[in-house]
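Work Package 4 report. The design task specified in the project plan requires that, given a folded chain encoded as structure tokens, an amino acid be chosen for each position. We show below one input record used in the internal validation round.
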């Protein structure tokens, strides 16, 4: 059975920075509160007319160019996103068209902040089964379009961006060792965007009730996240017969520095072995892990044969982990 190997990464964040000081002028908040409670200093905001597929395109072309590959060599494109360009078609189809990836099937995955790892699980299964040999997986979000800029509970958290990986079939000993994905829909009310679907179709009433924006019960979500992630990372190590000292780098979903530190501490990994870009990017949902992975890979923080552990938690609720030998 072939293994699935990440052969290249790429990422893109929009140029516009929105700082905590900027947010102080928009809602009743402070740099001190945001930094202390979340670890975020600034986030990037997509320009007018810059859509999720445009962010995805920049990340994907960076990964393709690093791999020295043309888009028509791709068998499949998966985009993990909750902020696609349109409900129909899939953002992956916009991306396929713009890349000229004529031989690739394309679809989206919605697992909120765990979306990239759900996509990795899907890509891993396709490659191990022999069905596809080369897959482009992108996590891309324009969360700023669905952020309620009058709600201080959520508007300080999110940012825009995209990260991409190219995954190939390999017969070597390195690659994706495990991906574990989980869901519990009984917690759907903790984190959602209620309007625009069949339950609350587009209407003036839905707009007046601000139903097209992301809602989150932050404190309750926080508690479930910490409890769940602590178990998730320990299970991921056990499954692969690894010790915490074997992990060269932990790359967590970037939602909250307190959640990241609690998970690292439970695992027994010092913060010097944890990838954090939350301070600069905020929470970019499905894009956060591939952006952080690209930053780690391109800055030399991951070397050949290193073990890396990825983990995420998000709306659904969903959560997931992956262990990769680089
Ligand atoms: C959102 C989050 C940062 C809030 O931090 P928290 O410590 O839980 O804070 P709380 O929600 O309990 O709010 C504490 C107080 O701060 C206030 N507050 C909320 N947002 C604020 C802001 N931006 N500025 C100032 N005060 C704020 C609240 O109104 C509350 O005030 P009160 O005590 O007078 O009612 C945190 O809960 C979190 O990160 N949650 C998990 C996110 C997550 O993992 N999501 C899944 C993946 S996306």
């Amino acid at each position: 059975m072939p293994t699935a190997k990440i052969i290249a990464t790429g990422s893109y964040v929009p140029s516009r920075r929105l700082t905590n000081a900027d947010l102080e002028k928009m809602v009743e908040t402070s740099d001190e509160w945001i930094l202390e409670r979340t670890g975020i200093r600034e986030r990037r905001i997509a320009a007018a007319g810059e859509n999720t597929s445009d962010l995805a395109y920049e990340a994907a072309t960076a990964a393709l160019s690093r791999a020295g590959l043309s888009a028509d060599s791709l068998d499949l494109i998966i985009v993990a996103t909750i902020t696609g360009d349109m409900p129909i078609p899939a953002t992956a189809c916009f991306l396929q068209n713009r890349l000229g990836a004529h031989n690739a099937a394309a679809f989206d995955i919605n697992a909120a902040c765990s979306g990239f790892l759900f996509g990795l699980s899907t890509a891993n299964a396709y490659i191990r089964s022999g069905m596809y040999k080369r897959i482009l997986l992108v996590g891309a979000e324009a969360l700023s379009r669905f952020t309620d800029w009058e709600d201080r509970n959520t508007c300080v958290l999110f940012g825009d961006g995209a990260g991409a990986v190219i995954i190939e079939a390999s017969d070597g000993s390195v690659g994706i060792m495990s991906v574990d994905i989980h869901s519990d829909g009984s917690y759907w009310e903790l984190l959602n965007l209620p309007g625009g679907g069949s339950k609350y179709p587009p209407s003036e009433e839905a707009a007046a009730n601000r139903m097209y924006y992301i809602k989150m019960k932050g404190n309750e979500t926080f508690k479930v996240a910490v409890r769940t992630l602590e178990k998730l990372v320990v299970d991921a190590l056990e499954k692969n017969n690894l010790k915490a000292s074997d992990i060269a780098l932990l790359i967590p979903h970037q939602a909250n520095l307190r959640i990241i530190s609690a998970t690292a501490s439970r695992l027994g990994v010092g913060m010097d072995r944890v990838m954090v870009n939350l301070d600069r990017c905020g929470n970019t949902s499905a894009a956060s892990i591939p952006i952080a992975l690209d930053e780690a890979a391109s800055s030399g923080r991951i070397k050949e044969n290193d073990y890396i552990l990825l983990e995420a938690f998000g709306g659904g609720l969903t959560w997931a982990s992956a262990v990769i030998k680089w």
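The pocket of coenzyme A is lined by residues 29, 33-34, 37-38, 113, 152-153, 156, 191, 218-219, 221-222, 225, 255-256, 259, 283, 313-314 (CB under 6 Å). Validation will be extended to a larger panel in the next phase.
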